Amino acid sequence: MTDISADRPYEAQFGDYFALLKPRVMSLVVFTALVGLLVAPVDLHPFVGFCAILFIAVGGGASGALNMWWDADIDAVMRRTRRRPVPSGRVAGDEALAIGIALSGFAVVMLGLATNWLAAGLLAFTIFFYAVVYSMWLKRSTPQNIVIGGAAGAFPPMIGWAAATGSIGIESVLMFALIFLWTPPHFWALALFMRSDYDDAGVPMLTVTHGRRTTRRHILAYTAVLAVFALGLATTSVAGPVYLAVAVAMNLWFLKGAWTIFRRDEDMAEADNFAVERAFFRFSLLYLFLHFGALLGDAALRAAGIV
């Protein structure tokens, strides 16, 4: 018998299309949007809330598909991204584009019909900002790419809040600021030990254009500003004792990590293969999850009449 499997064109599987939606990024979008929706001071029907989160998730996935379509050339160069569906050839670029556009329109229209058009408008702007402003412009043109582009990932709690209330409050603005200011130190820590990827792809990340020493200073500065806004959120109506305790502990630890990174030189980092920077990056994921989880904890305490 002759093996003809090698002659058959690859047919994309469900998992390939699901990976196109960046599920790990989508999980963060869903979680922060859910928190924004649940801590809002209104009673929302559970089915409406479920629909809102579903369509926000679809919109986040659409952004991922559009980003993978546009970034296929540089994704193919970077070790961290070369196995994504488009650069690996599992999904064609025009398929990714079509899926991204179709899901974007579906998500925005359905969110507007299910909740309100302010939330739908914010979702539409988020998709546009991530796919066009960040992916097509900022990412390849300025070392401030992740600073400005971080706004795209910061909108979900504001969208969730708007879906529930039909408005934008100071609470949702501070939740936005928490993610917006967290994004640069999170990604710059990654860039410190993945600099060669950005060098090879020609992406002007701060580590490439200004070097690791400058990047370390920026991580410390942004972490300090982040701590101020994180603690500021503790003074609003959505926060309580759980959030305050988490915010104080997490920001002290995050500042300590940023200070340690700032004091390290390249010889120290190379000697332990950027162990401190890698640990800071991993901790940054826990940092964001615990802040938003604490907001949920305080909401549960209020619902139970404990605070």
Automatic annotation (TrEMBL):
GO terms for molecular function: protoheme IX farnesyltransferase activity. It catalyses: heme b + (2E,6E)-farnesyl diphosphate + H2O = Fe(II)-heme o + diphosphate. Pathway: Porphyrin-containing compound metabolism; heme O biosynthesis; heme O from protoheme: step 1/1. The keyword Transferase applies. It comes from the Bacteria. The chain crosses the membrane at residues 21-41, 47-70, 91-111, 117-138, 145-164, 170-193, 219-236, 242-262, 283-304. Carbon 2 of the heme B porphyrin ring is defined according to the Fischer nomenclature. It is an enzyme of class 2 (transferase). It is a multi-pass membrane protein. The keyword Cell membrane applies. Its main location: membrane. Belongs to the UbiA prenyltransferase family. Protoheme IX farnesyltransferase subfamily. This is Protoheme IX farnesyltransferase. Its EC number is 2.5.1.141. The lineage of its organism: Bacteria, Pseudomonadati, Pseudomonadota, Alphaproteobacteria, Rhodobacterales. Interacts with CtaA. Converts heme B (protoheme IX) to heme O by substitution of the vinyl group on carbon 2 of heme B porphyrin ring with a hydroxyethyl farnesyl side group. It is found in: Cell membrane. PANTHER family: 4-HYDROXYBENZOATE SOLANESYLTRANSFERASE, PROTOHEME IX FARNESYLTRANSFERASE, MITOCHONDRIAL. Pfam families: UbiA (PF01040). GO terms for biological process: heme O biosynthetic process. Keywords: Cell membrane, Heme biosynthesis, Membrane, Transferase, Transmembrane, Transmembrane helix. GO terms for cellular component: plasma membrane.
